[in-house]
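== Folding task for one protein ==

=== Format: two labelled lines per protein ===

==== Paired sequence and structure tokens ====
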Amino acid sequence: KNFRVAVQHTNIIEYIVIHLTRENLELKTYGALTIFKCAEEKETRDIVYEHDGILPIMDLLSLKERNALAAATGAVWKCAQSEENAKRIFKQMDGIRLLWTLLKSYDDEVIINSAWALCLLIDDDQTDAENIRSFVGGLEILVNLLKSENLEVLTSVCAVISVVAVDYQNVGIISDYDVVPLLAELTNVKDNRLRRYLAEAIARCGVFGDNAKAFRTSGAVSKIVKYLYIEDTPLQEATVRALYQLSRDPANCAIIHKHGGVKLLLEMVAQTILTYRKPRQAAWQI
């Protein structure tokens, strides 16, 4: 972080953006990599945008060279965090299609960076949902990535599914590609970051057809209830959303109760009410 902050107070990023337009591929790759590492900071993202750095980064996505693609997809991921500027430009330049194509890469880092970038670029609207459905074999590619042995690939793909599955038609398509048993299998993985995005994906997929029942017959529901016992607020919040959708199946309600889920949920509600009331009481006493 200290390095990223130091870079902001120099003209380094401006010069790097200039070098992105050079012919030297190695130079452009290192430039994109530097932006990837530094664009966590908003100031860096603003500099890239203000000095027209988005276009040359996007140009790198059409290359075949592994290091260039890894650096460029990482730069897109970080720069896309600036919704008001970079995200709009990336989408205008067909960024979603380009990144989705890279999900077919044989390189895990390229897949991971592309997936996280897609999470930022895809909006909850009909246009993006229809565009994604228009990618030939696109949703099937996404579901098949759930068979990866790379933990970060699995985590990022679950995150993309949670975004894509906001659209009901998309949920139906990925359900036909057996997304439910693949997600259910991942409940055996003991990693809290994966569990968080897995729970989000299950929450989105649980609304379609008999998916809530299918998660039960696969043995996933009782495992998801256990996520509530983990002291991790984002994970607990995602788990609550998942259990809410899974409770559409009456038999799942019995499983949630059997494994202590109802008691934990009531305790969470009570704690939330208590947290909400304390500031109000303090203000009233003043």
